[in-house]
Amino acid sequence: MTDAKPRWNRRKEARPAEIVDAAIDVFVENGFAGTKLTEVAQRAGVAKGTLYLYFETKEDLFRAAARQALATNLDAIEKVAAGFDGTITDLVPMLLKRAAGRMGDSRIPAIVRMVLAESRAFPDLARIWHDEVVARVLTLLTRLVAEAQARGEVRPGDPKLLALSIAGPMLVGVLFHEVFGAESPFAPDLDALATHHSEAVLQGIVDR
């Protein structure tokens, strides 16, 4: 006899997070088209019927996966930004360093690559990633730039375009690793890229 309980006998409130965590792994391994909800349920240790209690479609599951994959880091960044009383010269390097650290999680870049590869066949995939991740990041950066402009720290210009200028190279660095591999002599160290780009972009946008 053993006292070990099946995984699906855990507290009900723990199940959605377990299902989503399993789904992230399966999406990364198989892509969106190749992911079967049966496999996700097996990986999470729940019956397929239990999975459907929380997520009616694969798109619903991917939305939850997008949220969970970056939620902790984005929440932390938003809290830091909300309580920060320094200048944008101090804030941008800190935010990019945090982003570089989070992008080191191999599952995040792999999800980005999956979205790019399969968004034509599954338009909802790109829309979900846009709404849950991209829009959230760019909305935060746009607001921070606009506030810095109001304080006279950043030169005039479209805050949305300046926000893209801040975030763009980090995304390119992540995609470089995913597409060409870390073996390429041009594959950037993301932490070093965050430092270098912070210095370069701030020289361009700060109103001195």
CATH architecture of the largest domain: Orthogonal Bundle
Query: Which regions have little confidence, pLDDT < 50, spanning 5+ residues?
Result: 1-10
Radius of gyration: 20 Å
Largest β-sheet summary: none
Q: Structural class of the helices, strands and pairings?
A: mainly alpha
CATH homology-level superfamily of the largest domain: Tetracycline Repressor, domain 2
Count of strand segments: 0
Order of helices and strands: HHHHHHHHH
User: Averaged pLDDT, please?
Assistant: 86
* Annotated CATH topology of the largest domain: Tetracycline Repressor, domain 2
The CATH first-level class of the largest domain comes to Mainly Alpha
- Portion in strands: under 5%
Shape: elongated
Helical percentage: over 70%
How many structural domains can be distinguished in the coordinates?
2
Q: For the terminal residues, how far apart are their CA atoms?
A: 73 Å
Note the total helix count. 9
Can you describe this structure?
By secondary structure, this protein is mainly alpha-helical. It has two domains: 56 residues, Arc Repressor Mutant, subunit A; 147 residues, Tetracycline Repressor, domain 2 (Orthogonal Bundle). Helix content is 75%, strand content 0%. The protein is built from nine helices and no strands. Helix 6 crosses helix 7. The longest helix is centred in the middle third of the chain and has 28 residues. It is elongated and about 60 Å long. The N terminus is likely disordered. InterPro entries: Homeodomain-like_sf, HTH-type_TetR-like_transc_reg, HTH_TetR, Tet_transcr_reg_TetR-rel_C_sf, TetR_C. This is TetR/AcrR family transcriptional regulator.
